[in-house]
Specification:
Blueprint: H1 70-74, H2 108-118, E1 131-140, E2 158-167, E3 182-190, E4 193-200, H3 213-220, H4 236-244, H5 249-256, E5 270-271, E6 276-279, E7 285-294, H6 303-312, H7 316-326, E8 332-341, E9 347-348, E10 351-352, E11 368-377, H8 382-387, E12 400-401, H9 406-422, H10 505-513, H11 516-531, H12 536-547, H13 551-561, E13 594-598, H14 605-617, E14 621-626, E15 631-632, E16 639-640, E17 643-644, E18 655-658, H15 687-698, E19 702-706, H16 710-715, E20 725-728, H17 731-741
Parallel strand pairs: 13-14, 13-18, 14-17, 18-19, 19-20
Antiparallel strand pairs: 1-2, 1-11, 2-3, 3-4, 5-7, 6-7, 6-12, 7-8, 8-11, 9-10, 15-16
The chain binds CIS-heme D hydroxychlorin gamma-spirolactone 17R, 18S.
């Protein structure tokens, strides 16, 4: 496993996690020579219920101890056992008739072990199959108290949460950095029952009606004949659908923007997408849209980086999240709401709030912070938690209600339905990660994988045989009471309101809100994706769609495809810009930024030590790169090499710092003899260092160096006075100068179009 570079941000020793294991990693039982080891791992259940909260089985006592943890079910005691608890003396050999004889059918251990293995996999999610998750806590600010009675949103209330991030199209084993929408699903284990906010990192959706969901997903998934391409929208069926079905234009434009390739889950916004209805104890309602705002700002990769990482480290986002949490650099988001009066029209400034292809610009309705999410613990077991977690937009709590958005209505059906086949039956709420932390006392009975042992004889209402239990609650005792909103008088139709018909106004708003460099990226993304299509008719139709967003966008993509740019078929919308939509132009904290410190045999190691220490102090992460692995200065104060010229690639870090030399060295970063590690004969700079510098330069990363680093920069053809390139006499001053450039995330001026 790759070392966690963020790890050194804490004082925790590298192997502290496993220090309860014997050195050889073999757990031994009582009587063995080594001291006994209680557990080979240290499983942790999802955040424990509060003392006044109980899991389903504990409210259905069996007469046996009821507070069993999952560990007690699967990993108790020092000895290896069968699933029935029989201790085993050998698990390496099948039972045979003699050493060379046939295996016997009576070997129940062999059959149990293989049978269980045969059934280890469950169906992956039909969408959002690839994901990573973390536990955390949500703290209400109390600022939403005037618009909702929801207990978890009241001031200083702390609620355990589990958050799963995902891509949409790819299979479970696909790469993290593909161009796609990201899921951002949060399970709040509140005192009033579970609330799930199942959102995305893009605030609009491809379709306005759930009945189209199978269409858009069938179009986006790999072609059914060859099952290619994996986790990509760059293919004919996707573009065929989204150009015929123009309500997808807005979401597609966001996907083609930098939002489609986030730098990190920690640096993504999240959106509830639909409009929800908040309700006070007095029954006063307010329409809202939910937003998650990352403390580290919204950042993206550039497309070439995303593609390289897909091969170099397909687990890039998953690793980044787990490493940050393990190192104590807990990611945080503020939950915010945009609020709108709950009028019969359900519109705001002319925007239909029931149309999930529309945003309300933040300039018209500012996002008001209502709480803070902190992710502070990695899952203990990927399958048990991340894979088995089951979200559902219908998991609501008193004070939060749905609206009649037709997309949301379909989702309210789909999520429960899909869990039944994915998790093998209707009892998935009993899986530890899905258990509410509020007491559960339902009348649901039996079914596949039932683990509660219910008592009583009357799981029906009304009853007298169980003393009339359980009782019904009222609004004053935290019952979930649907808001009695009036339903408009209407006739049954298969149709949509006229206000859903505009498919180009908001895409134009988005395009006009982008900085030049962001527009350049959008043009490149459309050109790449459409360039991967085979069907000429699809490309031409896509250009006709772009012409209705903006002529410049259309012309530039057409030029890249070598096709004529068509005229718009409708007048262009007179949209204003919404500056809040652009990612460029603001500055953000540097926590967790990764700085590649490139060294070689000639380097000023005191300077390297100083720089690494200063980076740690500033909450950043140095990654020491050298020609070969091991330690630098093993006789003195050794510096661990974390990447070699063979394993490092600039896509892993946010800036590059070339260590200088104490004396001017003619062969600094010179190519070495692979075996001896000695300087090569021609004195040329190592091509792997040149590749690193060229890529970092192309991707708009800050590049710095000290005392003698200029030689490598010159060899790479990088002007020392280019934007975002800094050199200095000492490591400290070089670091100081790059640190001042990093809050903007990238050197935007270096891109062709400039900011
Ligand atoms: Fe989902 N979606 N979705 N979706 N969705 C699922 O539920 C569905 C939509 C979202 O980490 C599935 O448990 C329909 C919008 C996330 O486990 C499934 C429609 C938004 C996740 C499903 C939508 C989302 C899912 C697949 C159109 C953003 C991953 C597995 C009406 C607001 C949750 C599962 C996780 C997962 C159905 C549209 C977000 C099949 C029918 C809009 C983040 O039930």
């Amino acid at each position: 496993m790759t070392e966690n570079p963020l790890k050194r941000m804490t004082d925790k020793p590298a192997d502290a996690r496993r220090d309860d294991r014997p050195a050889d990693g073999v757990p031994r039982g009582p009587g063995a020579e080594s001291p006994p080891v209680a557990e080979p791992t240290t499983p942790r259940p999802p955040l424990p219920p509060r003392p006044d909260q109980t899991a389903p089985e504990t409210v259905s006592p069996t007469g046996r101890p009821t507070e069993a943890e999952p560990t007690a079910r699967a990993q108790a005691g020092p000895y290896l056992t069968t699933a029935q608890g029989n201790r085993l003396y050998d698990t390496d050999h099948s039972l045979k008739a003699g050493d060379r004889g046939p295996v016997l059918l009576q070997d129940h251990h062999l059959r149990e072990k293989i049978t269980h293995f045969d059934h280890e996999r469950i169906p992956e999610r039909v969408v959002h199959a690839r994901g990573a998750a973390a536990h955390g806590v949500f703290q209400g600010y109390g600022t939403a108290a005037s618009v909702t009675r929801a207990a978890f949103l009241q001031r200083d209330v702390e609620t355990p949460v589990f958050v799963r991030f995902s891509t949409v199209l790819g299979s479970r084993g696909s790469a993290d950095t593909v161009r796609d929408t990201r899921g951002f699903a949060t399970k709040f284990y509140t005192s009033e029952g579970t609330f799930d906010l199942v959102g995305n990192n893009i605030p609009v959706f491809f379709i306005q009606d759930a009945v189209k969901f199978p269409d858009v997903i069938h179009a986006g998934k790999p072609h059914p004949d060859r099952e290619i391409p994996q986790a990509q929208s760059a293919h004919d069926t996707f573009w065929d659908f989204v150009t015929l079905h123009t309500e997808a234009t807005h979401h597609t434009l966001w996907n083609m923007s930098d939002r489609g390739i986030p730098r990190s889950f920690r640096m993504m916004e999240g959106f509830g997408v639909h409009t929800f209805r908040l309700v006070t104890a007095e029954g006063v309602t307010t329409l809202v849209k939910f937003h998650w705002k990352p403390r580290l700002g919204v950042h993206s990769l550039v497309w070439e980086e995303a593609q390289l990482i897909g091969g170099m480290d397909p687990d890039f986002h998953r690793r980044d999240l787990a490493d940050a949490i393990e190192a104590g650099a807990y990611p945080q988001w503020e939950l915010g709401i945009q609020t709108f009066p709950d009028t019969p029209e359900q519109t705001f400034e002319g925007i239909d709030l029931l149309d999930p292809t529309k945003i309300v610009p933040e300039e018209l309705a500012p996002v008001q912070p209502i709480g803070l999410l902190t992710l502070n613990a990695n899952p203990t077991n990927f399958f048990a938690e991340t894979e088995q977690v089951a979200f559902h937009p219908g998991h609501l709590v008193p004070g939060i209600d749905v609206t009649d958005d037709p997309l949301l209505a379909g989702r309210l059906f789909s999520y429960l339905d899909t869990q039944i086949s994915r998790l093998g039956g209707p009892n998935f709420a009993q899986i530890p990660v899905n258990r509410p932390h509020a007491p559960v006392n339902d009348m649901l009975r039996d079914g596949m994988h039932q683990t509660a042992v219910h008592t009583g004889v009357a799981p029906y209402r009304p009853n007298s045989l169980d003393g009339g239990c359980p009782f019904l609650a009222g609004a004053d005792t935290h019952a979930y009471v649907e808001t009695p909103v009036p339903v408009p008088e209407a006739r049954k139709v298969r149709g949509a309101p006229e206000s859903f018909a505009d498919h180009f106004g908001q895409p134009r708003l988005f395009w006009l809100s982008m900085s030049p460099v962001e527009r350049e990226h959008i043009v490149a993304a459309y050109t790449f994706e459409l360039g991967k299509c085979y069907e000429q008719a699809v490309k031409e139709r896509a250009l006709r769609v772009l012409a209705n967003i903006d002529p410049e966008l259309c012309e530039q993509v057409a030029a890249g495809l070598g096709l004529p740019a068509p005229e718009a078929t409708a007048p262009l919308f007179a949209a204003d810009a919404s500056p809040a939509l652009s990612q460029v132009g603001r500055t953000w904290p540097l926590d967790g930024r990764v700085i590649g410190v490139v060294t070689d045999g000639t380097s000023d190691l005191d300077g390297v030590r100083t720089v690494c220490e200063a980076l740690h102090t500033a909450g950043m992460v140095p990654l020491v790169i050298a020609p070969t692995g091991g330690k630098l200065d093993p006789e003195g104060e050794p510096i661990t090499v974390q990447r070699t010229f063979a394993t490092a690639r600039s896509v892993e870090y946010d800036a590059v710092l070339l260590a200088g030399a104490p004396e001017p060295a003619a062969d600094a970063y010179g190519a070495r003899d692979a075996k001896a590690g000695e300087p090569g004969t021609d004195g040329a700079v190592d091509p792997r260092v040149l590749l690193m510098l060229n890529e970092a330069f192309r991707h708009g990363k800050v590049i710095g160096g000290w005392a003698g680093a200029q030689r490598a920069l010159q060899s790479a053809g990088i002007p020392v006075d280019a934007p975002g390139v800094v050199t200095a006499d000492t490591g400290s001053s070089a670091l100081d100068r790059i640190t001042r450039l990093l809050p903007e995330h990238r050197v935007w001026k270096r891109f062709r179009s400039r900011v």
